[in-house]
Write a structure and sequence with these properties.
Length: about 300
Amino acid sequence: MTYTIGDRSITLDALSEDDHQLILAHSQVFKYCLNNAVYTLLLKVKKVVHLYSDVMTIYSTLLRKIPDYDDITMMANKVKMHLMKVEEDLDAIFGAEEDTAPRRHWESLSYERSTKKVSLLVIRSTIESFDQIAKTLNCIEIFFNSFNNLKKLLIPYLTTQTMAVSRCLAKIHYLLGITTIVDDIPDLSPPIVKQLKKIEKITTGMEREGLILDAAFLTFEPSLQQYTRVLLGKAILKRDISDTDCQLIKRREVCFQAAEFVGSIPLTEEQSFKKHINTIYYAVFVFMAMVSIVVYRIAQVVLGK
């Protein structure tokens, strides 16, 4: 990892005497980089939480239209409400819209006393939510796959991607749990340099997990837009949905409108859904392939390969 101080670029693998003096004069650079990496990562966590809150809003709303299956409906609604609480907490910390001022303030915080504590609370709450999401999605998938018309309401490949997000969150939690000396670097003796390299691994680890969250979001955000436009719009509401109304969070209103339009969902075959769901599956597959290529190339740059 390369650190830029003024017009100088420094790596920990080859430090000259001048590098030692420069680092000791600007030792906060390691904290700034780590805090910034964590802030950026948590914003990505926030976007993924919004994405899954959209998903659970859609599923819980549709389930309410299926009679005599209250258990799974209540299960989905409970997860939706828990996610909405996490959303509120994240908005309280980072704001509803990204702003540069909180980022600048975040960079100067004590990592061990402030950044880590807040971040662990966020990640633990998110992990708890995703444990519930994974169980609920499995139940919904089994239930929907039992009926031809419900099968067509499933969001393709979501369960598999959710497992990847859960593993990512667990790794983030592990990285946050590592104790560092980043707030107070007394010298550059060999043991201290070894500690700085550990901090560097944590920073690059945060960036690497951020790529996984990017992949999850970039894969399913377009597919959920397609789901809103095609399945909720054309198949249920019988009208075109604007691109703006298909966006993150805003598409929940389209879901509520679709629910009002449908009295109940019978457990029978609905032939009219077939061409719509095939379009969605194809779109998700294409997005997954494209995102995988992009993330692979970005990872090569981040890891310096």
